[in-house]
Amino acid sequence: MIPKQHIYLYITFLLVIAISCKEQKKTEEKRPNIVFIMSDDHSYQTISAYDKTYIQTPNIDRIAKEGALFTNSFVTNSICGPSRAVLLTGTFNHINGQINNAVTFDSAQVTFPKLLQKAGYQTALIGKWHLRSEPTGFDHYDRLIGQGDYYNSTFIKNGKKTPSKGYVTDVITDKSIDWLEQRDTAKPFSLMIHHKTAHRVWMPNTDNFHLFDSTNFKTPNTFFDTYVDRLAAQHQKMSIDKDMDLVYDLKMLDSLGEIKTPYRHMFENMIAKLTPEQRKKWDAYYNPIIEAFKKQGLQGKDLVLWKYKRYMQDYLRCIYSLDQNIGRVLNYLETHHLLENTIVVYTSDQGFYMGEHGWFDKRFMYEQSLRTPLMIRVPKKYGGTPKNIVPMVQNIDYAPTFLDYAGVAIPKKMQGKSLKPLLNNEDNASWRDAIYYHYYEYPNEHMVLRHYGIRTDRYKLIHFYDKELDSWELYDLQNDPDEMQNIYAQKENVNLINELKSKLKELQVQYKDTDRSTF
Fold first, then answer.
1. What is the pLDDT of residues 136-157, one digit of tens each?
2. Domain total of the chain
3. Does residue 517 form part of some domain?
4. Which of 510, 375, 507, 486 has its CA nearest to residue 44?
5. Pick from 379, 372, 393: which is nearest to 424 by CA?
């Protein structure tokens, strides 16, 4: 017979375990899951939550409608690899070392996935990585190789190459949902779904070829910009008119090889990866367009307007697929009762030009590439309410925000700020009143010169400091939102310029980026 005191001890032991498990469950419930969806080169102009001019994106909009839409969201360096290093580390590129796409990311440094993993989160990355080194801090990763391909792309799954069949946006979504199905449901998770879309060369899903066929796109007001008083803009090579390749970008791959372009061979390599079924649909759609184009013999303004329309059609078809697949993820989370405990984020690695200034691509500190979409849906239990958030935020803020919501200490090295106070409607009087930007990648195919600068709620001051050009630009965003008038040389702005330069230097000191200052 068991002594009474042993029975009491045993009962006490069971009660302690029960209470402990209950407390652990409460603790886990206070730690939200995080689904961080990021696209590539998605312009805010082509998200209907921001601008209804070009396309309706109901699923992306849903995140904003049920959460927060950031109306002044910016990047620190508008280019793929550097932007990804910033969001992982919460630091500027001169700190994390990823100043351009040619650098291999130092995967030994502290990142938010590593800290979440250490705190008990399951961490996963699926899709685009684009940092050369292998991902670290993830229990599971399934990444594209470099930029990846729009069709039948090869992935590297936890170190092993694996083929895929199908359209890359669909495949990344399939892989993400599969991981959600197989995860340990007893633990919180952080899932990064990083899409290739809408990176150049904008190859649509075969199901969406005829979307926007009859749409006539109004060109932006600045489409025929001549870059008066903007020397750096005169230097670039990302013009739709002069630099957009008829074959590589616009799919005019004629069977006779009469359309000869610098990048034709690169597109031939891409199209060769299509399955016979995919290629049949591709040719059925594009061949009539190619033949009609050759017969028209377009030149001058007619040619550039034709190129713009073709660019917009293919780009927006890619965005349509992206929106559909984001809808699939949201529906999965809702069906499996995960939305009530999951923070959902949508952003892009930077903005993009949709013909503004006659351009495609990014890189410049002008608004269309500096701005990036950002919307965050925080469940009500964590203080989330639908709202528009006006204060200026940057991609250095993502890592601190995720850690803050997870209850993980934010390292002092991180230079961003948690967005939680803004999301919770707390006093933002002490929030930043200016942002800092620094672009390094020159020379490159688009020949955008190195520059850094400051943006306040009204003004933007940019310094192009490369040895080929030392030039300053100043814009009054209130009176000149299109950034067409460089007012740096106007005498009446001397005091304003001195104030902005002083503030610029303060930010360079604050962010420890003082090596390249040349005042």
1. 999 999 999 999 999 999 999 9
2. 4
3. no
4. 375
5. 379
